[in-house]
Amino acid sequence: MRPLDIEICDVTLRDGEQTPGISFTCQEKLDIAHCLDAVGVEVIEAGFPSVSESEKECIKRIAGAGLNARVCCLSRSIKSDVDAAIDCDVDLVSIFFATSDLHIRVKYKKTREEMLAQALETVDHAVDHGLQVRFSAEDGSRTDISFLKEMFRQGCEHKTTYSSLADTVGCLTPLQTADIVRELTKDLKNRLCVHFHNDMGMATANAFTAAECGAFQLHTTVNGIGERAGNASLEELLVALRMRGGVDRYDLTHLTDLSRMVSKYAGLCVSRTKAVVGENAFSHESGIHIAALLTDSNTYEYFPPDMVGGEQRFVLGKHTGRKALEHIARTFGFELTEAQMEKVLYDIKERSEGKCAITSKVLKGIIRNARETV
What we know:
CATH superfamily of the largest domain: Aldolase class I
CATH architecture of the largest domain: Alpha-Beta Barrel
CATH topology of the largest domain: TIM Barrel
Number of domains: 2
Radius of gyration: 25 Å
Oligomer: single chain
Helix content: 40-55%
Distance between the termini: 56 Å
Strand order of the largest sheet: 1-2-3-4-5-6-7-8
């Protein structure tokens, strides 16, 4: 498989922090940044320095933390925002303005041409001060494609490093993403970035599709956090890139710990059924599945748990079979007779149908009772 030509820009520390109710401390941001760096993420968007002085100081600390990743920050298309980025000593500044006619009319009350001219002046200011520039179209997915192409063409003439498309309201489907990315990259003179929101549950799929169709920089957040329904999920996208995109340079063994760190700092629980890092991602109850897994894990696990720092787990319940029970009992040091096995299985199914959780403590009690009475 020829590897997809991509890089990751993780925006957990900026867009992720815009999740309602979330605010990371500077130390928490540094912890997350170091873990992202250990994974091998190429670009870390550290924040939006114009938000506050404390935000600006934190971005400075991350930029000076000696990370292998390049550090980025956000800027509106005004020179004072770029000046704040310059003070932070970041490598890359993301200069954005809303490009859809709806946003231009409602937010700015200017013409497309006036907005583009203002943005290009800001780009020149950043480039003149030695910054790489990502020229970003907010609400790009609802912007006239001819205007997007003209915006990016002029941006390239003003020496932008990247052109960036934001699906700000998460309205694209994978097939629509494929069409727009192919059209934008057809004559583009620099690299295309893509930033997807998850309002219809398609952000990660859209990011992977964009990579297949020529997008280079893919934006993610840990656990898919972010405004409203969040962003493309870092852990899901990296696994997809490893398994289906031929990209094997990231150290995925940190993903589960990183997910738990961000969950703790954000105060947001990860769904048990969350792909890759959820509690149930490698948990199995079905007796038929477990019997096969004990012979070959590939039967019901497409990728191994240890690849992402996870752990295979067998859960006992109404679907539990003899093979699973025998395996788990042996890990506890018990050998059961056929009659004892039947008794334990009966008790497990009866309790689980009554919504009683079969914890290790409960199971040991059931086994001991069967050994004493059968």
